[in-house]
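Worked Example 4.2. Consider the chain below.
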Amino acid sequence: MQIGAFPVAAVFMKKGVKFSNILIFIGAWSTTRIPMLLFEFSALGAKFAVTRLLIDIPGIIIITYLLSKFVSMEEISRIYNSAETPK
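Applying the procedure from the previous section yields the following C-alpha cells:
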C-alpha cells in the first residue's frame, strides 16, 4: 500500500535523513512495487515491465534532483519540523 511510505518517510525525517534520499525512497516505493512488476510481466509482457522499470529509475533520480534544487531550504526545514511535531 502506497500510504505506508509516508510514515516511513516521516521516521526518516526524524532521523535526519537527507531530503533527496527521502524523495528517492518515496519515488521508488510508488513505482517499483513487486506486485505491480509481477502483474506487468504476466499481463503486459517482460519487455514492457523491464522498459518501464528502466525508465522509472532514472526518472526518479532526475525528479529528485530537480525538486531538491527548486525547493528552498526554508521549505525543507518546515517539512522536517512538521514531521517532528505530533498532530
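The mean pLDDT is 89. The chain is about 85% helix and 0% strand. Compare this with Example 4.1 before moving on.
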